[in-house]
Write a structure and sequence with these properties.
Number of helices: 3
Helix content: 25-40%
Structural class: alpha+beta
Order of helices and strands: HEHEEEEEEH
Shape: elongated
Radius of gyration: 28 Å
CATH class of one domain: Mainly Beta
Number of strands: 7
Largest sheet: 5 strands, mixed, barrel
CATH topology of one domain: OB fold (Dihydrolipoamide Acetyltransferase, E2P)
CATH superfamily of one domain: Nucleic acid-binding proteins
Oligomer: single chain
CATH architecture of one domain: Beta Barrel
Strand content: 25-35%
Strand order of the largest sheet: 2-3-4-6-5
Length: 242
């Protein structure tokens, strides 16, 4: 009987220590995120001047890696569909409707590209589905906030997942904001739009992460203290009964 009681207490002690260790670990994790966020906010923005091929940074099978955000890519393909994206906000804060094209980059995959302003969509009427187009531009993560209604000819946000039901191509996550566009006849001159990048890959605020550290470590202290409180409470009840 005594052996059973010892095993039970040992099991309880191990469970308490494990829970306390998890809470402490979560506190250190939030502390690390707070430090990373602070360092990211203080570090100067360094623009990568290298031009990458699309395949070097991402693939249509997965989500766009955070490390690829904002880097300049080049791609070649055919525009197979055009859409209007209303109420888009550029990096300078201006709001306008943008022209979005779906570019087929190989036999099986495609990616969304921001060609420019919707009002300039007739600037290059010579570009048709059979035209081979070469582009460069910054690659961005998909948008999550709708800015208009979604229709067959209009995108509510810049997100390739909106097109999965209307195309059989594998769609890249994210989109390219063009800064140059050319065909065999030369460069296409039109107004381009600069898209603002997400400010941080780490959600939340510095003091928010610090508050989580305090909460998790407080929880660890409670987990360790709870068995002693229960034991004292049981002892008081035993004394009152006797």
């Amino acid at each position: 009987m005594k052996r059973t009681g010892k095993i039970k207490r040992l099991t309880q002690a191990v469970a308490v220590l494990a829970l306390a260790a998890i809470c402490v670990g979560l506190g250190f994790w939030q502390l690390a995120r707070a430090r990373d966020l602070s360092a990211m906010q203080k570090s100067p923005i360094v623009h990568d001047q290298q031009i990458y091929s699309l395949a070097e940074l991402t693939s249509p099978e997965g989500s766009l890696p955070v490390a690829a955000y904002g880097k300049t890519v080049e791609a070649t393909g055919h525009y197979i569909a055009n859409f209007k994206a209303p109420n888009q906000i550029a990096a300078d804060g201006s709001i306008a409707d943008w022209e979005i094209a779906l570019m087929q980059v190989d036999t099986a995959s495609a990616i969304l590209v921001v060609r420019g302003l919707w009002k300039d969509r007739f600037v290059s009427p010579e570009i048709v589905m059979a035209t081979n187009v070469g582009i460069t531009g910054a690659i961005h993560p998909s948008q999550f906030e709708d800015r208009a209604a979604n229709t067959p000819s209009q995108l509510s946000r810049l997100d390739s997942s909106l097109l999965t039901s209307i195309t059989g191509f594998q769609l890249y996550d994210g989109f390219i904001a063009e800064n140059s566009e050319s065909t065999r006849n030369g460069e296409i001159k039109r107004t381009r739009v600069e898209v603002a990048m997400p400010k941080s890959g780490i959600p939340g605020y510095y003091w928010q992460h610090i508050s989580y550290v305090v909460v998790w470590w407080f929880m660890a202290a409670l987990v360790i203290w709870a068995p002693f409180y229960k034991r004292r409470e049981d002892g008081d009840e035993h004394q009152q009964a006797s």
